[in-house]
Amino acid sequence: MNYLHDDKIKFFEEKANKIRESIIEMLVEAGSGHTAGPLDMADIFTVLFFHTLKHNPKKPDWPERDRLVLSNGHICPVLYSTMAHAGYFLVEELKTLRKFGSRLQGHPHRDFLPMLETSSGPLGSGLSQAVGMALADKIDHGLTSERRIYAFLSDGEQECGQTWEAAMLAGKEKLHNLIAVIDRNNIQIDGYTENIMPLESLSDKWRAWNWHVIEIDGHNMEEIADAFETAKAIFGKPTVIIAHTIAGKGVREFERDYRWHGKPPNKEEGEMAINELRTLGGKIKSEHE
Amino acid sequence: MPINPDLKLNTKMFDEKVEQVPIRQGFGEGLLEAGEKNMQVVGLCADLTESTKMNLFADKFPNRFIQVGVAEQNLASVASGLAAMGKIPFISSYAMFSPGRNWEQIRTTICYNNRPVKIVGSHAGISVGPDGGTHQAIEDITITRVLPRMVVLSPCDAIEAKKATLVSVDTGTPVYLRLAREKTPIMTTVVTPFELGKAQIFWQSTKPQVGIVATGALLHKALVAAKELEEKGTEVEVMNLTTIKPLDEKAIIEFAKNTGKIITVEEHQIRGGMGSAVAECLVKNFPVPMEFIGVDDQFGQSGTPEELIEYYGMGTNSIIQAVNKILKR
Fold it and tell me: Which of helix, strand or coil describes residue B236?
C-alpha cells in the first residue's frame, strides 16, 4: 500500500535535506560529535516526526503522545535537528550543541532538556526502557491502546547482551505497541560491523525472539512510511524495522566510511557538505554560485 | 534499662528466645500493603520471586508483576521505562546481582534519568552463609550511596523493613533497600516511629564513653555488646542508622559530641560503606577517634551465618574489643 503522495515525498526530501544541513552546521560549531549516524537517519526521523509520530511540539508533555526512545544517544544531532525543524525549539539553538550550559548535551540528558523521553548514551539500554514503557501502557490500557513506543537502536548495539534481554521480554509479553528501528549502516567506531562482530542474520535473530521483522531501504520515504504503518497493524508481537542505510548518507565524501562514525566535519569539510546538500549533489545550481 | 523508652522497642530483644524473622519478609509484606494502597506500584523480579519475598505481591497482583528472567540489566532499565509512564516499580533480586551486576544501568537509566525505581537487594551481607562468597554482597552500600539522587535504606529487622518499603513508595527518588536472608532478632515494634533520614538512639546512657553506630541486623550485636559492657561498668550509646543516605548529619555530629569516640558496625566492606559515610561527616564537622567493624578487604566463604560473622570480626566480642581499644586512644 502506498501511504504517500508525490508532493508529500518531495516535502519529506526537502525537510530531510534541511535537517542534514543543520546537522552539519551544529557539528562544525561543536567541534566534536558523530556525523555518519545522524546523517543516515535523517530520512527516517523526517517521516517519523512529520508523518507517523503522535506528538505535539507545542505541548511536549501531552499525555497521549507516543514515546520515542533514542537508545544510541550518540546520534542525538539528528534528534535535536529534527525536533528543532518540527518546532520544539528554535533552529538557532542547535548551534549550542555540546557547549557548557546548553540544553543540547553531547548525549541526551533530560535534566537539561526535559522534553526528551530518556537520557541516553551508554549503548544497549534503550530497548529495555521502551519495553518498560510499552508494558506500562499495556497495564493501563490493555490491548486496545493506540499509543506506540518507538525505540531507535544502532546496529553496533546489537552486540550488547542487554539488547537481547529486552528483545526476549518484549517477545514474551507480545508487546504489539512496541516498534524498534535498527539503523543498519554497517559501521561502528572501530570499523565495519561484520569485521568487529558479525551480526547477520539480524532478521533471523529477531524473528527467533518472536518479533515481526520488516526490512527496508532507510532512504526510501515510501518504504519508511509503509513500514511504520505495517508495524502499527501487527498484533500479538512487537515489530522491528531493520533499516538498511548508507552511513553518512547525503554527503558523498562521508558515505560508507566508518571513520565518520565518531568525528565532526571541520570548517572546510562542513562548507563542502552544506554545498553538496544545497545543490542536491550538484543536481541544481548552488545559491552561492 | 537504658533502652530508649520513647521508641517503644521490643522489650524482649535480649531474651534467649527473642522472635526472629528474616528482614526480607518485612519487605514482602510491605510491598503487598503498598500494592493495595497504590495502584501505580508494580513489581519486577529476575527469577528470585520467592527468595526475595516478592511472591506475596506477585500472587495478589499478577497483572502488576513482571517476571524478566535472569536478566538484571534488563530488570533495571525496564523499570526505568515503567517509571517514565508514572509507575512506581520495585525491582528485586539478590544484592550481588542488583545493584551488583546492573550498576551502570542503575546509574544511567534510573539515577541520571531521574526515575523513581526502588532497587531491592536481598541476601546482602556475609550472613547469606552456605552459598559462599559469590552470593555475599558486601560492596552494595558503597556502590549505591555514591549515586546522586539515590536514597539508601538498610533496615535492622523485618518490622522496620516493612516501614522502609512503605516509605520508599512516596520518595519520588530512586531508593536502594538493603535486605538480608537469615532470620534475625526483632528489635522494633509496629509502633516504633520510623522516619526516612532520621537516625535513632536505641541504647542510651547518661555519661557515655563511646558511641556505636550500627546498621542492619548487626544492630542487635551492638545492643548485646552495650548491655554486656554496661554490666562491666563501661557506658556506651547505640544508634540505629537505617537511612545511610541522605545521612542524618545533625544526629551523627550530636552523637559524636556526646560520646567523644565512635565505632561503626555494618555487615559490609569497611571501605566505602556506612562507616565511611559517618567518617566523611565527622572528619569535616567534628573529628573524633573512630573504629570500623566490617569486612576488612576480603571476600566471604561458605559457613553458617554465625561462624562467618565471628570469623570476619563482626560479632559481639569484636564490638566489645573495639570499644576497649578505642577507650585507650
Answer: strand
